[in-house]
Amino acid sequence: MRIRPATRAELPTLQDIERAAGAPFRALGMAAIADDEPPTLALLEEFRHAGRAWVATGEGEGEGESESESDGTPVAYLLSTPVDTATHIEQVTVHPRAARHRIGQALIEHTAERAREQGREALTLTTFADVPWNAPYYARIGFHVLAEAELTPGLRKIRAHEAELGLDRWPRVAMRRELTPGGTTPRTAP
């Protein structure tokens, strides 16, 4: 696997990844999420231009992968933005055909390293509380749920925007993972 900045030409591929990754939400009774449109090309370009859009490819993996996974085509992506003293993971999405290979975790670790270099205290994200590949997954890789009183002003603004979009029809949480000094991140068992 290789992690690198997204290119402008790959932005439609990121939309395709998002659409494919939305499909499993239908089985959870979350058809509105499954049918939600991916980020627009203009929004993806904003993240890319700011240096906050990363892709993971299957380059160098070898046997057993499809041509698109080995030719440098993205199979996952992550968008981040500074929020208060943290780097906020706006979106991390893995194509279902590349799931369960720790690609999302690799993108998060890459983002953690960059956040440390930028002097950020933590990673944050907002997610669905009860979706197995959302909050329970993030808890396994070192994130913890924030109580309402722990939300920073920036996270409160994000949560309010999510409520305006109707995402609070399903329980949502804000989560945080501290970035420890010296470059180490608390690890949990796989």
TrEMBL record:
- List, alphabetically, the Pfam families matched: Acetyltransf_1
**What name does the UniProt record give this protein?**
GNAT family N-acetyltransferase
What are the N-acetyltransferase domain coordinates in residue numbering?
A: 1-162
Extract the InterPro entries matched here. Answer: Acyl_CoA_acyltransferase (IPR016181), GNAT_dom (IPR000182)
Indicate yes or no for the key word Acyltransferase.
yes
Q: Which superkingdom, per the lineage? A: Bacteria
List the top taxonomic levels of the source.
Bacteria, Bacillati, Actinomycetota, Actinomycetes, Kitasatosporales
Keywords from the UniProt entry: Acyltransferase, Transferase
Is Transferase set as a keyword in this record? Answer: yes
